[in-house]
Amino acid sequence: MSEPHTADERARIVAALSSLRPDPAATDRARAAIIGVAATPGGRGPLRWIRPTLRFALPATGIAAIGTVLVLSLPRGDEDRAAVAPGPQTESCVVQRGQTIRILPLQAAVAMRDGTATVAWNAFDRTIRVGDAVPAAPFASTRLSGPDVFGWTGPAFAQNERGDGLAAWIEGGRVVAAHRAAGGDWSDPEVLGPAKQGRRLFDGPAAAVAPDGTATVAWPSGAGLRAARRAPDGTWSRAATPGTPLQDQEDPSGASEAAIAVDDDGDVAAVWMMGGEGIGAATWPANGTGWTATQKVLNTVTGPVAMYGNPRVVASGRGFVLSMLVGRATRIRSGRILGRDDMVVATRLPSGASRWSRALRLSPRGEVPAQNTGVAGSDGEVAVAWIAAAAPGTPEYRRPGFPPRILRVALTRDGRFPTGLDRTAPATLLVPGARGTISSPALALGDDGDLTVAWTDGANQNSGRNSSVRVITYAPGAGWSGGRRISERGTGPLTPALTRDEAGNTAAAWMRCAGGRDLILRVATRPAGAAWGAATRVR
Amino acid sequence: MTMWVMAGTRSMLWCVYEPVDMTARTTEQLVTAATGGDRTAREELFRRFWPVAWRRAFTVVGVRAAADDIAQDALITGIDRLGDLEHPERFAGWLDRVVVNRCVDWLRRESRLVGLDTQRAETVDWTGGAAADRDLRRAVAGLDPDRRVVVALRYWLDLTPTEIAEVLGVPVGTVNSRLARALSDLRVTLGAADGG
Asked: What ipTM does the predicted assembly reach?
């Protein structure tokens, strides 16, 4: 039987469908449900990237760092069998028509002051919550937000040394913030501006609080950033990096991954992905009214850059340090990249300077790094950590086709990163067994060069049935010690957050969606000079 | 979009490192990467196929809420079973079949396919889009349910009459007959709208 339609009729009917669009809310719900579904394993996959964002408030601490590159060992210490206090049954991570769907947990944000930990998190019930570890009601949560919080980003949370805190998040398509003066209560949420409407799922805001209480929030917009600054008297001012429009409009751009840091003078540095134009950096001076001109920090890297990402910035006493992942093209033919050398590099913006320094390579050749993160101490020393696939031929490399992961840390001495790598470092962090993998490094740098490292053991991007958070400590002259598991074992992923106060008290927080419906948020603390305690279930 | 840096040129282009730009990858590459646990690949699969799956579901069932659920279920199933795909390049077609099957299941549950000769006023919310498109969609929405479904399956899901017959469980001749009547109805409606 011949077709009943003409070609034109068919074309018109087909075209009538093309303008139909799903509701954005339905798209959001579907994305949350679908991206959380783990694919059935089917052979070796590529290196898995977990959102490496480390958002925490670190009061300035004094340390003396060691200028070398260390490779962590994994001493299997005593297992943590301490009982975890049962928590109330929480809302499901995502439940749709009675079917439980596991959603990728978000990273909680944790701060520490005078031995008291504060944690802020996205509760997966469309709210942002915060809780303090006070003796009377440990981590009794306070709802900071309204009921329409975007489910894909955790809050940005920053706190200065005296306890002034700021939390920022995305709600109802806008960036919203709440403030708490030291010893006070959280304010009502305030709208700072429109949030970016883009393809990326994790473009939340970044926050920093200066020693005098001035708070800055920045988020991607256009090819740069929008920002809002809260003065100690409570007044807000708005600014955007040059080229970023301030007026409300739909933002189709690719700017993403904003990170900011504030130094003791109150100067703020921001770094971000410029949507295909490289990595941008700008500063907002404490006494200024807006951002300085944006610099493309990939220009600090020698040679052609084929890939880049994961910019992070910390404020040391000597200025700002930016670390990033860079893939330098080693062979180019007819416009195609045939060879690439991936590395972690760091560049500095010294105090009072206007240009970032030439980038320094931190990672060894042959390893493929990822998930770099950094932390600064109050005396100007900096630590940068990253995950890497071990290079063939090295002691860390086991069997072809499945390079295990290692975790490396670079520490400055007198403000300088090592120019060479100590490959005779005592040990290497390895993943045992075929299912093992490590990810999501977190750092806390304290007095006398004490470095604490936390990571996820046994989980990849969105699965891992036996995953846990492990920690280890480095002390100058004493090396690595105290490697242990501090969390329960369970379904991944996990993205631990780590923080430390001036006195040396340390806190770690992690979230998981256990069993597909039980949101678990736990915090463990280690008092200065003592051992890690049992984790407290916050949620 | 993936771009590459050329040394020494002003028109330097960059490629996103984390995550790797997935938009230039084929469906087969995305399926393979997603099967291996690559979340960015899964995100790209969602970005590419969610609107398509939803649109297909909506055109068949005509109810947004149902289309939301059907498309989401289909994608969840599809992504959850990526490891079962022997031919990753056929993911799109495979997903279409899942959507169609779920749509038909829904229609049957909603008794929309019962009483095929029954004239019922159907309320479908095919709103939005350009005026000409709305007119045509309104015309399709005004068809009898059995004719509307075959139109959706034929022109918006690209099923052949034989495939439609198999899906609906009716003879091929019945499908062809419904298509012919549907086109006849649409020509009357569209002709009036066009002033012809």
From this structure: 0.72
